[in-house]
Amino acid sequence: MSAFIPRTLLALVVLPAAQADTLKSETEVRALTDKVMAQAGAGRTDDAYGMLSPYALVDIRAFETARTNARSSRMAIEALVGNSVGYEFIRSEKVGESLIKLTYIEKTERQAIPWMFIFYKAPAGWAVSTFSNGANVDALFDR
User: Fold this and answer.
1) Consecutive 10-residue runs of the chain (143 residues): their mean pLDDT?
2) Would you report the helix, strand and coil content of the chain in percent, each value rounded to 5?
3) Which of 67, 71, 62 is CA-nearest to residue 51?
4) DSSP single-letter state for residue 43
5) Could you tell me if 80 and 59 are in contact, meaning their C-beta atoms sit under 8 angstroms apart?
């Protein structure tokens, strides 16, 4: 069943002219992703994307395209896995001093949907390098 859930993935496309808002600490990074997941866990995917938007290092057009795709596929996802019923934090992984990956699941009535966020520590602070959500629950167990 999970193979039919559409997958959203933003690729890293850095904007040379745009400056993303940044977060000053890892604590702020975690607080933001918890807020994003509270929206996702309530079935408000569009609001979740909106909260990430100011902190995205990706081309805003790519980000908005992914947001639009997520909005349009939401009804299809709900038909397959049911409504969102919450979220759960899975883990945080840090590589060196410049990259953090936070992994969550959006809980639905019949399936977990993994969400993964990678933040990069730019000179001004932490910003979203990339994130994904989709059907590959098995990836949560790759360790």
Assistant:
1) 43 46 96 96 88 85 76 79 93 97 95 94 94 84 74
2) 40, 35, 25
3) 67
4) T
5) no
Order of strands across the sheet that contains 84-95: 8-9, 125-133, 112-122, 99-108, 84-95
39, 44, 76, 135 from 13: Cα distances, Å: 25, 25, 28, 23
What's the predicted TM-score (pTM) here?
0.81
Q: Write the CB contacts of 9 (distance below 8 Å, at least 6 apart in sequence).
A: 66, 130, 132, 134
Q: For position 78, what pLDDT does the model report?
A: 80
What's the pLDDT tens digit per position in 39-50? Answer: 999 988 888 988
Q: What angle is formed at CA 57 by the lines to CA 35 and CA 52, rounded to 5 degrees?
A: 15
Contacts of 47 (CB under 8 A, 6+ apart): 39
Model pLDDT, residue 10: 40
Q: How far is it, in rounded angstroms, from Cα 116 to Cα 92?
A: 10
Residues 6+ apart with CB under 8 A from 34: 89
